[in-house]
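Sequence in, structure out. Go.
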Amino acid sequence: MNGAIKGSGWNDTLVQQAASNSKEQFANSPDLKNALLHAIMDALEAHTTMGTQALGSERVRDGLKDVLLGSAQLYESLRARSARINRFS
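Output:
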């Protein structure tokens, strides 16, 4: 979710506030609180939509599995974790 929030379309007001204020002042901005709330809602909506699509489509699930086993290297990561656990058992 961090990536979704950091990548949100922050408005010009926040850009200006970040440029003009200390980090503490910026952290207390009501505009930041509102933008954060909207970013969280947008991320939730996007994840809900993706989850619904994956639940409703075997083709989407197969595509996700291909990504996990390909570039995401899920298998390799789990094998490495297993090796570390077995080393300390």
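Check: The CA atoms of residues 82 and 88 lie 10 Å apart. Residues 1-56 form one domain.
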